[in-house]
User: Which sequence fits this backbone?
């Protein structure tokens, strides 16, 4: 799988093989990454990308195979050995101590002696140098939890560089970033590459691969199926390699046919638990047979708006009307009875009980429905049969209603939630981040279901931080910035226009 | 006695009553800041009180008694660690189990060895930590205000009392000024960060428990051979729980821990003083009210009325490497 490269290799993986019980996570992986390049590794969730990188970082040990750094075979027994070999890792979930300062986080594990005092001074100096060399500006005395996510990630990169990393692995680095933060990250990565660092970028976002990498490898079901020069491949080819079949990247949909107003929001103001106004005097309608998308950078009030409409968070003023009637004080169960279904933003936190078996989650929230019960008792048989039907219809894998929900992949977990909410045939559907952490195949499937709902005359309100998703699904787009709706555009609005509105620059 | 004398005598008694709380709360500080809940402090204190009394009784040496107390307390820490770190068991269950073991074992062994209904034998004077009169205490006694304070509150305590107060700045220094402290605090907040930095989470947590066992050993020793002259059944009497309350009340910080322990010690001393006395207008105040106050105050604090208590984030959660 190696490419002809004029530069010497920074990393070579030869015949890496890893099994977890019966799961063959990595099958005979060969990979060569040239020094001073950005190499992307792309694949669906569960394709084995993270396992491979964990082996490289000493979290796991390969059953077979060899790792060579700069041509020399190395044994990476633990993270300490990886650090010593010049490998740094930026994890998807940051490994930062939130109530520590930037400086303390950077020093942790590389304190330079039993007492902190001496190390602090030299760490401060070194941070300043890294900041100047790579444009990684962060206040060393800032406390992590008070920093925006983009800066926290910069601290992770600084941590790796501080330990002398020449090879930097980034695991899904943009998952938590806003578009401007992602742009900034890419800028930093290019500077790092130009200064001779080698970067491995793990992602399932094709656009990022195209935007930043020099070479790219595709993983599928534990195998490395292809390696390409980025300039010589296309998004379509990569998607096909990832999934193993042709994938529709654009959603096909006809013109909308909006009917009566089913759901209205009037002068709604919502505060968060700290008392900060997150939704500020917002009004809009959603009609039958249309998809209204709410675009915005995460944290601009979309989550609170969704929660208010779903009856989870109490608005401080304004009202929500369903079929023209105010639903103030109606609880989520009452709203469901009025025909409102809610696919929450965070399936782990709100959508599912991960310890429950699949069939339990597949009726959760609707368990009071007559068909699942016999008096005060649940009809488990009926629940399981119902779950099996949904599993068939939504191609949920593995097709086992008795499996713990935690054991399904992200995409399949999301399908469980989607199936539950859509199959009850609601009149209105509100959806938060329908495809966050979901692989391409499942994204295509979920998008189709959402369009079908619209075509069946349902009112759909969609919130997503993925601008592409909003643009491809919505008939109308509302842009939220700092709690206000700053403008409305048609579904055909350009990315640039919306991007500026999301940044609060244009209306 | 005028009111000032009464105040001084309550204050002196408050200091004495707060010492076991202080040692124990500092012990809890180390283990909880490392992410290990230690409800077993009570049991450790009790077991070390018993061990200290036994060793002091047999050897007639208070320092050997202290070593015995510390040793047993650390041994309990290891059991807690083995259950909750190595085997990732529930820390509360393990702690409660240790409390029961300590309560039962001290009685059984005490009865087997001394046959006095669970008491140990009377420890001879040289096997105890007795009061130290600081230089000039008698001379100062007649100086107004400062004199009695120095002579009756600051002077006249045993060596463990001074060690307890010395432990406060030492704990602060260890936690905030050393590599060990930085890693310990990190492991209680985000063990993943410690693990990916190439440091063993389990070994860090074991070390924090050893420190906790060490400090708790002082608390037990103080009970049996400094404050009294023998081990008595269940002589810790819930002090481990009050120390935990003090730890929460102090928001897991060393200096506030000392202040909280002094406050709770003062409430205890005041309760003792009020026993059988009646106040004008109110009449006799039930002592139980004062005894309950530490818990009530802690509940009020936890309910968010006095700022917010932010416990270590990873507290109580066994660490598992994630994929």
Assistant:
């Amino acid at each position: 799988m190696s490419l002809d490269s004029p530069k010497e290799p920074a990393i070579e993986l030869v015949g890496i093989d890893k099994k977890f019980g019966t799961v063959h996570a990595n099958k005979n992986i060969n990979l060569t990454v040239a020094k001073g390049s950005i190499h992307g590794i792309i694949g669906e969730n569960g394709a084995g990308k993270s396992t491979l990188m964990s082996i490289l970082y000493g979290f796991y040990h390969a059953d077979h195979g060899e790792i060579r750094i700069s041509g020399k075979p190395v044994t990476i027994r633990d993270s300490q050995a990886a650090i010593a070999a010049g490998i740094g890792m930026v994890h998807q979930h940051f490994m930062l101590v939130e109530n520590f300062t930037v400086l303390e986080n950077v020093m942790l594990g590389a304190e330079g002696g039993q007492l902190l005092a001496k190390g602090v001074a030299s760490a401060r100096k070194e941070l300043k140098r890294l900041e100047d060399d790579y444009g990684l500006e962060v206040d060393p005395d800032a406390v992590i939890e008070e920093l925006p996510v983009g800066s926290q990630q910069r601290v992770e990169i600084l941590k790796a560089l501080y330990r002398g990393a020449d090879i930097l692995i980034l695991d899904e680095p943009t998952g938590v970033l806003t578009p401007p933060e992602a742009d900034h990250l890419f800028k930093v990565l290019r500077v790092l590459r130009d200064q001779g660092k080698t970067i491995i970028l793990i992602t399932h976002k094709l656009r990022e691969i195209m935007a930043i990498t020099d070479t790219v490898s595709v993983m599928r079901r534990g195998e490395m199926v292809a390696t390409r020069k980025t300039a010589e491949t296309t998004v379509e080819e990569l998607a096909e390699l990832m999934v193993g079949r042709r994938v529709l990247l654009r959603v096909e949909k006809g013109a909308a046919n909006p009917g009566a107003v089913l759901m209205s929001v009037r002068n709604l103001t919502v505060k968060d638990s700290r008392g900060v106004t997150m939704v500020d005097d917002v009004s809009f309608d959603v009609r039958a047979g249309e998809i209204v998308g709410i675009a915005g950078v995460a944290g601009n009030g979309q989550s609170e708006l969704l929660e208010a409409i779903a009856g989870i968070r109490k608005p401080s003023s304004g009202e929500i009307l369903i079929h023209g009637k105010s639903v103030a004080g109606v609880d989520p169960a009452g709203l469901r009875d009025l025909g409102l279904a809610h696919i929450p933003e965070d399936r782990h936190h709100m959508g599912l009980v991960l310890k429950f078996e699949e069939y339990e989650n597949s009726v959760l929230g609707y368990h009071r429905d007559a068909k699942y019960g016999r008096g005060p008792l649940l009809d488990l048989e009926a629940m399981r049969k119902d779950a099996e039907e949904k599993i068939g219809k939504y191609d949920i894998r593995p097709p086992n209603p008795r499996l713990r929900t935690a054991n399904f992949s992200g995409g399949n977990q999301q399908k469980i939630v989607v199936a539950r909410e859509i199959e009850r045939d609601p009149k209105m559907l509100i959806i938060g981040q329908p495809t966050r952490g979901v692989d391409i195949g499942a994204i295509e499937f979920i998008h189709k279901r959402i369009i079908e709902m619209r075509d069946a005359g349902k009112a759909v309100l969609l919130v997503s931080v993925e601008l592409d998703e909003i643009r491809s699904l919505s008939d109308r787009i509302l842009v939220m910035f700092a709690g206000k709706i700053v403008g409305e555009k048609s579904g055909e609005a350009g990315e640039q226009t919306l991007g500026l509105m999301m940044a609060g620059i244009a209306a | 006695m005028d009111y000032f004398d009464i105040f001084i005598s309550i204050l002196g008694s408050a200091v004495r009553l707060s010492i076991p709380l202080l040692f124990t709360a500092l012990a809890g500080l180390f283990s909880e800041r490392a992410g290990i809940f230690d409800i077993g402090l009570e049991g450790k204190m009790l077991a070390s009180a018993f061990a200290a009394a036994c060793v002091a009784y047999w050897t007639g040496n208070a320092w050997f008694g202290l070593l015995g107390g510390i040793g047993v307390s650390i041994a309990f820490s290891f059991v807690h660690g083995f259950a909750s770190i190595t085997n990732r068991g529930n820390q509360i269950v393990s702690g409660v189990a240790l409390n029961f073991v300590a309560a039962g074992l001290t009685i059984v062994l005490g009865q087997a060895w001394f046959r006095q209904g669970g008491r140990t034998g009377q420890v001879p004077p040289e096997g105890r930590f007795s009061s130290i009169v600081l230089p000039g205490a008698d001379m100062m006694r007649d100086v107004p205000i400062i004199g009695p304070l120095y002579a009756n509150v600051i002077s006249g305590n045993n060596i463990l009392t001074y060690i307890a107060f010395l432990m406060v700045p030492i704990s602060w220094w260890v936690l905030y000024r050393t590599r060990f402290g930085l890693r310990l605090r990190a492991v209680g907040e985000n063990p993943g960060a410690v693990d990916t930095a190439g440091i063993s989470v389990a070994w860090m947590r074991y070390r924090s428990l050893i420190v906790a066992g060490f400090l708790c050993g002082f608390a037990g020793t103080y009970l049996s051979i400094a404050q009294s002259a023998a081990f008595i059944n269940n002589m810790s009497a819930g002090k481990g729980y009050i120390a935990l309350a003090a730890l929460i009340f102090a928001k897991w910080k060393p200096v506030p821990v000392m202040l909280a322990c002094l406050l709770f010690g003062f409430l205890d001393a005041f309760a003792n003083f009020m026993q059988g006395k009646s106040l004008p207008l109110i009449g006799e105040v039930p002592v139980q009210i004062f005894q309950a106050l530490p818990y009530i105050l802690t509940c009020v604090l936890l309910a968010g009325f006095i700022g917010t208590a932010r416990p270590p984030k990873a507290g109580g959660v066994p660490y598992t490497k994630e994929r």
Remarks:
- Chain A has a mean pLDDT of 90.
- The CA atoms of residues 71 and 427 of chain A lie 62 Å apart.
- The radius of gyration of chain A is 24 Å.
- Residues 251-339+426-507 of chain A form a domain with the Rossmann fold fold (CATH 3.40.50.300).
